[in-house]
Amino acid sequence: MLMHTDECSRLTSLLDENTKAIKLLIGENHDLKTKYEDIRAKATYVESENKTLTDRWKAQKLKESEHLNEVNALYEDILNKQSRRPTSYKNSRANKSRK
């Protein structure tokens, strides 16, 4: 009977130790889950902010490229108009600029 009581006490002590360890692990697990959720929320925010900034940058570059296309078209128009002028007009303009 004494052996059973000692065995029972040992098992009870072991059970208490394991219960404490489990409670500690549950607490650590909860803390880690909370930290993970915080980090995940920050990552989601950063991804959203990054997309917003990227979209704004792309829109700005598109606007700049459209402006450059307009300027290039205007420049091409000017060159085409100059190439269609009569030669005598071109020569007279060149002579005036030399004087």
From N to C, what is the helix and strand string?
HH
Helix fraction bin: over 70%
How would you classify the helix and strand content by structural class? mainly alpha
Instruction: Give Rg in angstroms.
Output: 41 Å
Distance between the termini: 130 Å
Q: How many domains, as an integer?
A: 1
Overall average pLDDT? 90
**How large is the count of helical segments?**
2
**Beta strands, count:** 0
Largest sheet: none
Low-confidence stretches: none
Instruction: Note the beta-strand portion.
Output: under 5%
Shape: rod-shaped
Q: Outline of this structure?
A:
The chain has 99 residues and is mainly α. It is built from 2 helices and no strands.
Give structural attributes.
mainly alpha
What would you note in describing this structure?
- With 99 residues, the protein is mostly helical.
- The protein has one domain.
- The model has no long low-confidence stretch (mean pLDDT 90).
List the SSEs and their pairings:
Layout: H1 2-84, H2 87-98
